[in-house]
Amino acid sequence: MARPMGSVRLKKANPSTLLLGAVLCIFIIIFLVSPSTPTKTARLAVNTASHHLSPPTSPYRKSSRPGELGPPPVTHYKLNNVTITPDPIANQEHVLILTPMARFYQEYWDNLLKLNYPHELITLGFILPKTKEGNAATTALQAQIQRTQKQGPEKDRFKSIIILRQDFEPAVMSQDESERHKMANQKARREVMAKARNSLLFTTLGPSTSWVLWLDADIVESPPTLIQDLASHDKPLIVPNCFQRYYDGDTKKMSERPYDYNSWQDSEIAQQLAAQMGPDDILLEGYKEMATYRALMAYMVTEQADKSLVIPLDGVGGTALLVKADVHRDGAMFPPFAFYNLIETEGFAKMAKRLGWQPWGLPNYKVYHYNE
Fold first, then answer.
1. Most buried pick, 57, 82, 135, 277, via CB within 10 A?
2. DSSP type of residue 292
3. Angle at the Cα of 236 (from 233 to 241), degrees rounded to 5?
4. Is the dihedral of CA 144, 148, 152, 156 positive or negative?
5. CA nearest to 157, candidates 108, 208, 106, 122
6. Confidence band (pLDDT; 50, 70, 90) for 310?
7. How far apart are CA 277 and CA 262, in angstroms?
8. Helix, strand, coil % over all residues of the chain, rounded to 5
9. Where does the chain cross the membrane (predicted)?
10. Under a CB-based contact definition with an 8 Å cutoff, are residues 211 and 325 in contact?
């Protein structure tokens, strides 16, 4: 029988061909919707927070689909597996660097970038006051963060960065050295500093944090190996000596002088003074009006300058202070009130000792403060 003109006979498809096509289609769909294979630029994928309520020390990336935010994940953290060792790089230990900042110094940021501890293991935390200077510092800080985290080389980028703004007024509006170091301003100023430190600490300390490095915003020079150098002593809290470089008009040369007097060994005279004080009064160091005769680490630099020399302390400064995270987890914080007639970092050292953690100092290991 003749076929009608224009009709076409369809050839029956082979079942194996159909199966192969179906497998190929499934493969293409999976390839398109699956995330790309982790690379060096995606090194934080494992530690990236999956929800905005996840621990703040994990970087959080918002969903690309607005409005599609699932419930917070239930996550189990095994803090017994968090190591705190003298070799933090080998053990991939996470470091939280915390900085109360009232002014932004470019030298501080440049010095921070020079730290050769792996930056992917470092989280930065800042707290700034809501003042004119604080607003300017926040703007400058955000500009440097943008440049480093998005435009800079991969090795310079930090794990995550957190910025907080103080919700309380600063005690001293001016940040000039002559004003903020007046004895009359010290108690109120250090109360506010303690509150700022505590707010920053309690907001940022995460379950994977091994070490907390307190680094003041006006520390502009320190060894690139600062973190691992301090950690190598395996002390619960340890502080280097803080000095300041300046031009000596007499010798016509650059010289240096002690800056931080808050790292000390106690004296009987200081204890007697405290015994005569009221519960809300505080002892201050470095003022002739209150001679405590404590042994100040600022004046313990030895001729041999052995940087590994370590000494026990009763008070510590906070310009550059490395603390094992367990010390803070045990409850040691910065008292914004008179604690055994001590306050802020010196009160923190006393609180740590009461919890069984001995403070230590390195008289010959120096960091340098900005010279106004």
1. 57
2. -
3. 65
4. positive
5. 122
6. very high
7. 19
8. 35, 20, 45
9. none
10. yes
The rounded distance, in Å, linking the Cα atoms of 331 and 339 is 14
Pairing verdict, β 295-296 and 264-265 = antiparallel
Extract the tokens encoding 160: 């995550």
Tell me the per-residue pLDDT of 185-214, one tens digit each, with 9 for 90 and over: 788 999 999 999 999 999 999 999 999 999
| Residue in the structure block whose two tokens are 């800042």 | 126
Mean pLDDT of 114-138: 96
Tokens 């209150």, located at residue: 290
Dig out the tokens for 95 from the structure. 């470091």
Q: Contact 95/204 with Cβ under 8 angstroms?
A: no
The conformation of residue 263, written as its DSSP 8-state character, comes to: -
β 359-369/320-324 pair status: unpaired
Q: Please name the fold of domain 81-369.
A: Spore Coat Polysaccharide Biosynthesis Protein SpsA; Chain A (3.90.550)
Task: Tell me which residue has tokens 């015994």.
Answer: 275
What pLDDT digit, counting tens, does each position of 225-244 carry? 999 999 999 999 999 999 99
